[in-house]
Amino acid sequence: MLGKTYFSSSSLNNHALDVPSNSRVLMLLGQLEKINGEAMVRDAETARQVTAKILHLIQTQGESAHTPTCHATSYSVNTRDVQTILNILYILSELLTVGKGRRVGVFVSKGGTGILFQILLSNSKELPPSEELMLQLHSLLAKVGSKDRKFGVKARLSGALNVTVNLVKQNLQNAKLLLPCLQVLRVYSTNSVNAISLGKNGVVELMFKIIAPYSKKNTSLLKVALDALGALLKSKTNARRAVDGGHVPVLLALYLDWHRNDTRHRHMLIRKGLLVSLRNITNIKLGRKAFLEADGMRILYNSSTECLPVRTLDPLVNTSSLIMRKCFPKNRLPLPTIKSAFQYQLPHVPAAGPVAQLYSQPPGVDDVVDESDDNDETEADTENDTENEEDEKDHHTSNDDIETDLNKLHPKKNPGRPFEELRVYERFFSELSEDFQVILFLKNGIPTAQALSPKRVPMSSSQEDVNPTKGQNPQLPPSTSTSTPPAPLTPLQLDTIHLSKDQNTKDEAHIPSTDGHATLSTLTRPPPQGQTIEQELAHVNWGSDCGSEGPEDEAGEGAVLEVPDTALLLPLHDPDVYVEMVKGTHSVPQYAEVAYPDYFGHITPTFREPHQERVYGVQRSKIFQDIERLIHPNDILDKVVYDLDIPSCPVIEDDGESLKFNSQFESGNLRKAIQVRKYEYDLVLNSDINSNHYHQWFYFEVSGMRVGTTYRFNIINCEKSNSQFNYGMQVLMYSVQEAISGRPRWVRTGTDICYYKNHFARSSIAAGGQKGKSYYTLTFSTSFRHKDDVCYFAYHYPYTYSTLKMHLSKLEALRTPQIYLRQDVLCETLGGNSCPLLTITAMPESNSNDHICQFRNRPLIFLSARVHPGETNASWVMKGTLEFLMGTSPLASSLREAYIFKIVPMLNPDGVVNGNHRCSLSGEDLNRQWQNPNPELHPTIYHTKSLLQYLAHIQRAPLVFCDYHGHSRKKNVFMYGCSVKETVWQSNISATSSDLQEDLGYRALPKILSQIAPAFSMASCSFVVERSKESTARVVVWREIGVQRSYTMESTLCGCDQGKYKGLQIGTRELEEMGAQFCVALLRLKRLTGLRNHQHLLDLESDIIGSQSKVVSCPTTYVMDEDEPSFLEAIDYSAESNDEDAEPENEHGSEAHENPDHLDHLSDSETNHRD
C-alpha cells in the first residue's frame, strides 16, 4: 500500500522551478490544490487527469514557456495511485532536465531528495513494485545525487541502499531498469561508509556479474557499472574483497579483450573504467601482488605500447603507467649502506635528533625496505560521511606553521650571553676603536689598514669549555700561528695533484704547467663578442618612483647608475693560486685531485640559455623504459663502473665499452655509477657526511665517451618531491677540450629531462619515520662533441671553498689606499678549515676627530652566505657583492663611505669541501642551529652569532642582516623577512593595534631591489614568521639581536619568469649582477632612511595591504619538503599509490599538463618559506 507522499512548495513550486506561467497551467494547479489531502484518495481519477494535463502542457510548450512567476503553488499528494505519482515524477523530470543544474540545486535545498527516498521505500513494499515507478525514481535520484552533498548519508539512513541493491539483484537481465539503478549506486558509492556497507552486501561481486567481455550491446550499462565498481574499490576493504575473489585476473582479461576488439577506439571510457578499477585495487599491497602474479605488468606494458601512436588514447596510457609504476617491486638502493661513504667521527654526539639516531643504529639496519604501506591502514565503518572530500580539505588549508605566539613575534633584543663572555670578540671590530694615529701616512700620506691588529681566531676545542651556561668564557689564542688545528692533510705538491688520471690525455690536451700562467690567463678574458651584453648589463635605471636623490648626488650618481659588470673581473682567477689554495684545504676523503673546471675557471657564455621546452610525453617514455627493465631483465647489463664504497679502487677498469666516472675532488659528489644499458647509466649520489639522506647536489667527471652518441644518465636517489628540472632547468656541463680551445665555461645541457618518482624505496629511518616513501629520478640525455674529452656535470655552477680562498687573495690585490679591507679568521671548522670574516669600508679621510668619529659611527651591514653547500648560487651572488664593494666606481666608493660591512662569505666550508648538499660535518643543517649553536659542533654559527650578540651589547646592531641562499623549486630572486603585522594577518589570532605596531622599513630594501634588479621579484617575497623557521638565521637575528631588516635572499637555481630575464636560465653573470645590485640597493636605502621619506612609507603600507589576501604556505615536513613550497604545476611527477585523482577530468592525464602553456603557474600566493 502506498503511504503518504508530500510534495510541498519545494517540489512543484512554480517560482523555484519555473513552472510555465500561462493561465491554463495555473488553472490546473489550482484544481490540484482543491483536491489535495484526503480528497485525492477519494478522487484519484481526477488527480490523475490533472497531473497528466500539466505534464502534457509542460512537454508541448517547451523551454520557451518556462518563465519565472511569483505565484506559489503548494499542495501535498496523499495517494495510492501509481499513475498520479508517475505523472508528478514525469513533471519533475521535465523540469529538472533543463536549467543547467540550477533547478536541481533548488530541488535539493527544499528537501526534494528526502521525498524521493520516501516514495522509493513506500513503493518497494508493494509486491511486485511498479517497474516504471522504480525506473523513474532512480532516474530522478541519479540526476539529484550529484548535487546533494548529503545524498549518501540520506540514502543510508532512509534504508534506500538495500532497496536499490535488491532491485539490481532482481533485474540483472533488465537493462532498461538496471541502468538508472547502477547510476544511483555509483553515487551511493562515493560515500566511503556506503561503499563498505555495499561491499558487505555483495555489491562488488554483483558488479562483476554485470561487466562483460567486448560487445556492442549495452555499452552504456557497462560503462556505468564500471564507474560504480571503480567507486566501490576506492574502499580498501572492497579492494581486498575483490582480490580475495580472484577478480584481478578477470579485470586484466577483460581489459585485454576490449583493447584487442575495440579497434576503432569507440569505447575508450569502458577501457578507462577497467583501468580505474585496477588502479584502485592496486592501492593496497595485496592488490599489487595479485596484479604482478597475473602478469599485469606485461599486459599493460604491451597494450600501452600499442596505444602510444594514437594521441587520443593518452588517458589509457597514463593510467596504465600509473598502475605499473605503483606495482613495480620496490627495491633498495644498490648500496651497502645509505650512510655516507665517508666517515667522520664527531667529537661528541648530540643527545637527540637524527644524528644521535644515526650513531645509535646497529650495523645493517639503516636501509630497510619497509614492507608496511602507508596506504594499507585499516578502515573503519565510522569513516567520515562528507561527500565532497575537497570541502573537508578546505578546513585544513590554513598554515599551521605560522607563528601565533605574540610574545615570540616581538623582537626581544636579548643578546643571551653575559658581556664578559662576548668581550673577546672585540678584536674583530678594531675599526670601531682604531684611532689611526700610528699608521697614518705610510703611502704618500694616505692611510692604509695593513698595519692593523693581527688575525685572531676564537678557537673552541674539546679542552676548552665555552658553553655560556657553565659560566666560562671562550679562551682565544694570541694569534693564528699558535692555534692547534686537527691533524693536517699531508701537504700536496703540484706534482702530486693529478689534473688528469690519464697521462696521454694530459699530453694531448697541452694542459699548461705552472710556468704556463700566461697561456692560462688568456683563457680568463671574456671574448670580445660579449662586450655588448656586458655594456648592456652595466646600466640600471632607477625608475620614477624612487624618490629624490638629495644632496649626495654630488658623488657622481645620476638618474642612470653605473653598475660595473663583475664578469669583467674574471682575470681574478689564477690557476696557480687555486692549486696553492687546494693544498691548504682539508677534506674527509683527503682529496688529491683538482677538477679541471675549478683549475681553468669559468667564463659566462655570451649566448642566451632559455628554459628547456619540455617534450610532450618525455616522462612517460622514460618510465616505460624503466618498466622494460622488469619485463626484459636479460637486456640489462647492471655493470658497476664506479664505486666509492671500494675506496682502494673506485674506478673499475674495463674493456673500454663503458664511460669512466670520477668525483674524487673538492665539492665532488657521485657515489656509484652502474651501466644498465650500452649507453645508459644509473648514478647514485652520496649522502651528506654523518647523515643518511640529503641527496641533491652532484658534481662529477665523465670520460671515455664516443663522439655523437647520446647517453642517458639517471640520478636515482633524489629526495625532493619536485624539481625545477621539470620546468625548464638543465644540468650544467663543462668540456675540457672546449676550455683548452679558449672557451672555459659551464653550459646548460641535456635533453629529455624530467624528474619523477621511481621504484627505489626510502627507508623510514632516512625519511623521518615516514613509511612507504620512494626516491625520485632525475634523468637527462646528452651527447659529446669532442674525442678524448673530459667532461664534468653539476647541479649548479660549482664554487668551491678553495675558489673562495683564491678570490679573497686576489681581492687583496684590488685594494686601494682608500679601501679599508681586513680579513680575519673567525674560527676553525670541525674539519680544520678556517672560516674567513671580512671587514670592508672606506678609510677615514684623515686622522681628525671628525673623520675618525664619522668612520666609527657608520652603520653596519652584516652579510653571510653558503650555509647550505648545495646552494652554490649564493656564493656567486656573494662574489658579485664582494667585487662590487672592492670596485673603483663612485657608487662603490659612496657605499664604503656609508657603511661598515661585516661579511662571512662561507658559513659551511666543510660541507662545501666534502660535496654535501645541506649539512656540515656534524650531519645537521647549520641554518637550524641559530637558537642554541654548539661551539664544538657548529663553530661557524656559534661565533657568527657571538659577533652579532657583541654588536647588540655595544648598541651597534646591524642596520641590515642578509643571509644569501639558493632556492631549488622557485624562479627569480626574492627575499624572506620578518613582520609581526603580516604574520598576524595570515593567522587567526586576535591582536590589538599596539601588538601590530612596527616600522615598515623592513619592506624598503626588497622594494628597492624590485625596482633596480631585473631578476628580483617582489611578488615572491614573504615576511611571515613560521614556527619551523624559528632557529634560522633570519628569525633569530630579528628576534634576539633586534635587527628589523633581517633577511634571507633566495636566488633561483633555474631562471626567471618575469622581467628582463624572463624565459632564461640564470647564469653566473646574472647572479653576480644580483650581488652588485644588492649593494646599490643598500646605497639607496641609506638615502631613504636619511631622508625619512614619508611617502615611501605610505607606499610600503599600501604594498602590505595589497598582499593581505596572500595565502602563505603549507606546513613543512621532516625531511626534504623542509622549507620548500609544494610546487603546484600539474605534472604527474609521482605515482602516489593513494592518489585517487591522478587523472584530471579532461582525461588527458599527466602528459596533458606537459604543454608548456601549463607550466610555471605556481602562484606566488602559495609559497612556502625556505631559509
Automatic annotation (TrEMBL):
The keyword Transferase does not apply. One of its GO terms (biological process) is proteolysis. Signal peptide: none annotated. It comes from the Eukaryota. Residues 459-473, 519-529 have a biased composition (Polar residues). Residues 498-510, 1145-1171 have a biased composition (Basic and acidic residues). Its EC number is 3.4.17.24. GO terms for molecular function: metallocarboxypeptidase activity; zinc ion binding. It catalyses: (L-glutamyl)(n+1)-gamma-L-glutamyl-L-glutamyl-[protein] + H2O = (L-glutamyl)(n)-gamma-L-glutamyl-L-glutamyl-[protein] + L-glutamate; C-terminal L-alpha-aminoacyl-L-glutamyl-L-glutamyl-[tubulin] + H2O = C-terminal L-alpha-aminoacyl-L-glutamyl-[tubulin] + L-glutamate. The active site is at residue 1050. Residues 359-417, 453-529, 1130-1171 are annotated as: Disordered. It is found in: Cytoplasm, Cytosol; Mitochondrion; Nucleus. Belongs to the peptidase M14 family. PROSITE patterns: PEPTIDASE_M14 (PS52035). Keywords: Carboxypeptidase, Cytoplasm, Hydrolase, Metal-binding, Metalloprotease, Mitochondrion, Nucleus, Protease, Zinc. This is Cytosolic carboxypeptidase 1. Gene3D superfamilies: 2.60.40.3120, Leucine-rich Repeat Variant (1.25.10.10), Zn peptidases (3.40.630.10). Its cofactor is Zn(2+). Residues 367-392 have a biased composition (Acidic residues). One of its GO terms (cellular component) is mitochondrion. It comes from Sphaeramia orbicularis. Residues 478-494 have a biased composition (Low complexity). Residues 797-1086 form the Peptidase M14 domain.
